[in-house]
Every structure is written in structure tokens, then in C-alpha cells.
């Protein structure tokens, strides 16, 4: 095939990359040679152990967020039930490779057939551990691809992303996948351009490819004009960046604030605090390892690290948003539909042993800095009132021990439609933060990480905007601040409409700060 081919997918907003195509190999076909059952089982155990050691080594080098993602795979490798299933296949005359593939196939099918989109996304992790063990049985090297190339495949396992050296550039182009998957989250944090949801794609290895994460466009055999256009878009964003933060001109609704969303402590280590107006969302479920959920002192140290970095700028720390696709340390529940179950503040109030430790750590850490607390997945007013009461009780208990504390402002995420519609009843909340990711998918009844209904999710934006208009007006009438921290805040195309609602506070990913600041400076709002 010759000539330029242009394809449209969904981008992750991370600039562009060009390079030779690396086409992911087809699934490994297990060899059919066979030894004695006892030898086959020994070979399989050795291969599983080798794969587990490789993943554990990767975990040890990773940040807490990345380690949490890989931990699921290690736990599956260590699961004796899977080994027992493979042993049964060996007893029926299969070799170690065929037995392992057969045992994992049942798990893969179970994940893929799940009615929950986030559980379905776990299938790629199981496929990865299947292939890791098969490679260990074959004595093949670990999967990787040349630095600077454009990875092309159906999907990508997080462990493959984490084990790759991205310092030489490169990008990711996926037939399936989603911009809300684990690997997409990692790519966004590392600034790696990624385009997903392209459907069936045939590209020969080494073919030049341009992947534009900003527009979601993939160009096979790009011309000079294609590369120049992508570079021009990147320069437009970079032109607005400067070592010191340039405040956005105030609107009739007041000063504009551009804050940062933090999912990993390493992000603040790479970010100049002068590049933003503070931290609008610190996702504690990603920065606190599972082992430290009940470790008060470790949490105090983590929170103080962020508060010290921000100096006197505001830092909004969200309580653990556990449940859904983020079970930590065995505290998640086995539920048929976890996204409509015990998650966020519901889970924390049901398990006060977790919430009390986090409250104490935040009360202690908040003696320095401008700390605010954000409650996730709030549905009814008593959830805010009950959380405030718990904070006050823990503050009193610490004070009796002569431990310094400071009671922070307590606000709530507006991401459940019931709360968004009845916002005026949440009088005990000090402030509001619009979580448009969950709000949109609950309004549309369409998962944001399911490519088959992605159109419905994005078409729900007018409904989201209507609620935003209502909630901004409600918050203003209540005399309470309101901001936005969902993906919509980081979408330059959505910013004029969001400004028109009266919003003045936008919290976005570190990599989106410059683009959002540029768009806000250029936006014209009537009136």
C-alpha cells in the first residue's frame, strides 16, 4: 500500500509523535511438544515464578499508582486456583504451555464477557500475564519495542508501557482501548501521545506514522505538511508557556484560576509551583499505597509534601475514592455493579476505620498550608454532614492529646446527577467541584471507557453544560465557591462554553496547564 492514510480516533491530549511503526506481534501460539506431567508442572511453576519476579521488580521501580495497577497481575500469578486449573489440564495430557493458556482463557473470557466496562478492561492485564508465562516457557525475551517507534496494536498492557523507555520519544496507536484506561492514565502522566479506538488497522512494520494525541488523528506515511501542522499546534501551546505563571485576565465573574490535578507525587517534583494557582484535586487513592491506608504518619508526610510544594497556594485533597475500578488493599467489595455500589464517600462512611485515619492525617498536615478537603461520590446532604462530624470528633480527640490540628474547609464533588440537581440542599458543604467525567457517564448511561458507546458519552455534553449552568448559579446564590476538575476542564474546545456558564476555577492535568491557560487567554465571552 502506498500514499497517505488518515484515520480519526480519540486522542489523550498529549501533543504528537512521529516514528516508524512497531506492529505488536500476534498472540503467542503454545508449542505442542510434551514431557512427563511432573516435569511439565515443574516447568510451569518455574515460568510463573519468573514472570512474577519480573513484575515485582517492575513494581519496585514504579510510583504507587503504577504499582497498584501491576499488583493485580502479580496477585493473579500467585493465585493457587489458577495453578490448580492448569495442573488439571496437564493431567489430561496437555503440556505446560497449552495448559496455562487454557486455564487463563477461562479468566480472559470471564473478564471480556463482564457487563462492567472497567472489569472488561482487565482482560488485557490477564492476556499480558498469559503471554509472559508463555514467553518464559519458550525462553523468549521479554516483550518490548524500539524506543522512538509508534506502537500499533489492539491494546497495550500497563506493564509493557511501564517497562518501556520513553525518553527517546514514541507514541501509541490502538485499535481498541480507551482514553480512560490504565495505560491511558499512565501515558497522560508521562506526556506520551496516544490515540485509541481506531478499529481494525493494517500497517506494515517500519512504515512512518504520525500520532497526534491533541486531535486524535493518525497519519500513515505523513507528508511534510502533516508534520508541520502538528508541530505548529504544539508551538502555539508552547508559545504561551513561560517559567513564571501568567495569570489569565479576569472576567466579569472574577479572577480566573488554573489549578492542577495530581495523581502521582512525582508530578509535583517535575512541576514548577509557579505554573499554576494551586492544586485543585489531589487523588489520594493513587498516591497512598495500599499498605499505608491505615498508616497515619505516612499519610501526614505525603500530604505535607504537597502542601510544602504549594507554599501558601490552595491544595484541595480528595478523600480516598475507593470502589468502582479502584479497590485498594482488599477494602473494595465484591459487587455486581461496583460503579453503582459502595464507592467514594459511601464506602468511607461504611468503613470508618479508613476514614478516621485519613481524617487525622489531614487535620495534622493542614496546620501548614491552605488545605481544603473534597468528598468523592456524594449523593445526599447527610454524607457531607456525617463526614464533617467525624472530622470534628477526630480534631477534638487529637487536641486532647496536645497534637496541633487545623479544621479545613470541606467541599464535595458534584458528579452524581441527584446531587447536581439538588445542589441547593447541600448547605453543609463549604465549596463544590464539578466532576464532569462521572457526571457525563451517569447522565448518558454510557461508560466513558467503552469505545462502542463513546459517541453517546460525548453527546451528553449539552446535558452536562445545562447542569453546570444551573449549579454555578446555585452555588453563587449560596455564596459558595464552585470549580471544575473533570476532563472537560482540560478540553480547549469546551472552555468557551464553560466560561460562559460563569465558572472561574479550572483544575487540569499537569500536561494540560499550558494549553488551558492559552485557551482561556484567547477565549471571548459575550457580556
Structure report:
The chain has 527 residues and is an alpha/beta fold. The chain folds into three domains: 5-25 and 143-237, Glucose Oxidase, domain 1 (3-Layer(bba) Sandwich), CATH 3.50.30; 37-138, PtsI, HPr-binding domain (Enzyme I, Chain A, domain 2); 252-521, TIM Barrel (Alpha-Beta Barrel), CATH 3.20.20. Helix content is 45%, strand content 14%. The protein has helices at residues 37-60, 64-77, 80-91, 96-112, 117-121, 123-138, 158-163, 182-190, 224-239, 265-269, 284-287, 296-310, 345-350, 352-365, 381-400, 417-421, 436-444, 454-459, 461-478, 495-500, 513-522; strands at 5-8, 10-11, 16-23, 150-153, 171-174, 194-196, 208-212, 217-220, 257-262, 279-283, 314-318, 370-375, 409-414, 432-434, 482-484, 505-508. The strands form two sheets. Strands 1-8-7-3-4-5-6-2 form an eight-stranded mixed sheet. Strand 4 (150-153), helix 7 (158-163) and strand 5 (171-174) form a beta-alpha-beta unit. Helix 1 packs antiparallel against helix 3. The N and C termini lie far apart (53 Å).
Characteristic terms for this protein:
single chain, 527 residues, alpha/beta, Glucose Oxidase, domain 1, Enzyme I, Chain A, domain 2, TIM Barrel, 3 domains, eight-stranded mixed β-sheet, eight-stranded parallel β-sheet, 21 helices, 16 strands, globular
Shape: globular
> Stretches where pLDDT falls below 50 for ≥5 residues?
238-245
Compute the separation of the termini in Å. Answer: 53 Å
CATH homology superfamily name of the largest domain: Phosphoenolpyruvate-binding domains
**What is the number of helices?**
21
At the third CATH level, what is the topology name of the largest domain? TIM Barrel
CATH architecture group name of the largest domain: Alpha-Beta Barrel
Strand content: 5-15%
User: What would you call the structural class?
Assistant: alpha/beta
Tell me the name of the CATH class of the largest domain. Answer: Alpha Beta
Summed up, the domain count is 3
Average pLDDT figure: 86
Main sheet: strand order? 1-8-7-3-4-5-6-2
Amino acid at each position: 500500500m502506498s500514499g497517505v492514510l488518515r484515520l480519526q480516533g480519540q486522542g489523550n491530549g498529549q501533543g504528537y509523535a512521529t516514528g516508524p511503526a512497531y506492529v505488536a506481534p500476534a498472540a503467542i501460539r503454545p508449542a505442542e511438544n510434551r514431557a512427563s506431567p511432573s516435569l511439565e508442572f515443574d516447568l510451569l511453576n518455574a515460568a510463573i515464578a519468573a514472570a512474577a519476579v519480573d513484575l515485582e521488580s517492575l513494581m519496585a521501580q514504579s510510583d504507587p499508582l503504577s504499582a497498584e495497577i501491576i499488583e493485580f497481575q502479580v496477585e493473579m500469578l500467585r493465585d493457587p486456583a489458577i495453578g490448580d486449573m492448569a495442573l488439571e489440564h496437564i493431567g489430561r495430557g496437555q503440556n505446560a504451555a497449552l495448559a496455562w493458556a487454557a486455564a487463563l482463557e477461562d479468566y480472559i473470557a470471564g473478564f471480556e464477557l463482564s457487563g462492567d466496562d472497567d472489569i472488561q478492561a482487565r482482560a488485557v492485564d490477564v492476556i499480558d500475564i498469559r503471554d509472559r508465562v508463555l514467553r518464559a516457557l519458550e525462553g523468549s525475551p521479554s516483550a518490548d519495542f524500539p524506543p522512538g517507534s509508534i506502537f500499533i496494536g489492539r491494546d497495550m498492557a500497563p506493564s509493557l508501557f511501564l517497562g518501556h523507555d520513553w525518553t527517546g520519544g514514541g507514541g501509541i496507536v490502538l485499535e481498541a482501548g480507551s482514553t480512560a484506561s490504565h495505560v491511558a492514565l499512565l501515558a497522560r502522566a508521562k506526556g506520551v501521545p496516544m490515540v485509541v479506538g481506531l478499529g481494525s488497522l493494517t500497517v506494515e512494520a517500519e512504515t512512518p506514522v504520525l500520532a497526534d494525541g491533541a486531535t486524535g488523528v493518525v497519519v500513515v506515511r505523513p507528508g511534510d505538511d502533516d508534520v508541520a501542522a502538528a508541530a505548529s499546534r504544539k508551538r502555539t501551546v508552547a508559545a504561551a508557556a513561560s517559567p513564571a505563571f501568567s495569570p489569565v485576565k479576569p472576567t466579569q465573574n472574577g479572577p480566573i484560576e488554573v489549578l492542577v490535578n495530581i495523581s502521582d507525587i512525582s508530578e509535583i517534583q517535575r512541576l514548577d509551583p509557579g505554573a499554576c494557582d494551586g492544586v485543585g484535586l489531589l487523588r489520594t487513592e493513587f498516591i497512598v499505597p495500599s499498605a499505608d491506608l491505615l498508616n497515619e504518619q505516612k499519610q501526614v508526610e505525603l500530604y505535607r509534601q504537597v502542601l510544602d510544594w504549594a507554599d501558601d497556594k490552595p491544595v484541595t485533597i480528595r478523600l480516598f475514592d475507593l470502589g468502582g475500578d479502584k479497590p485498594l488493599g482488599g477494602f473494595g467489595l465484591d459487587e455486581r455493579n461496583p460503579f453503582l455500589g459502595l464507592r467514594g464517600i459511601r464506602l468511607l462512611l461504611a468503613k470508618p476505620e479508613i476514614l478516621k485515619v485519613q481524617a487525622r492525617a489531614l487535620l495534622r498536615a493542614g496546620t501548614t498550608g491552605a488545605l481544603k478537603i473534597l468528598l468523592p461520590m456524594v449523593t445526599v446532604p447527610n454524607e457531607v454532614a456525617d463526614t464533617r462530624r467525624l472530622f470534628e470528633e477526630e480534631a477534638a480527640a487529637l487536641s486532647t492529646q496536645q497534637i496541633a490540628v487545623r479544621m479545613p474547609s470541606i467541599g464535595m464533588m458534584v458528579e452524581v446527577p441527584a446531587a447536581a440537581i439538588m445542589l441547593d440542599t447541600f448547605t453543609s458543604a463549604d465549596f463544590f467541584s464539578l466532576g464532569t467525567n462521572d457526571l457525563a457517564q451517569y447522565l448518558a448511561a454510557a461508560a466513558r471507557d467503552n469505545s462502542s458507546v463513546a459517541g453517546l458519552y460525548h453527546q451528553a455534553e449539552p446535558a452536562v453544560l445545562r447542569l453546570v449552568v444551573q449549579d454555578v448559579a446555585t452555588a453563587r446564590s449560596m455564596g459558595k465557591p464552585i470549580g471544575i476538575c473533570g476532563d472537560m476542564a482540560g478540553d480547549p474546545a469546551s472552555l468557551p462554553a464553560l466560561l460562559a456558564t460563569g465558572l472561574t476555577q479550572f483544575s487540569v492535568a499537569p500536561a494540560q496547564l499550558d494549553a488551558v491557560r492559552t485557551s482561556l487567554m484567547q477565549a471571548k465571552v459575550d457580556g
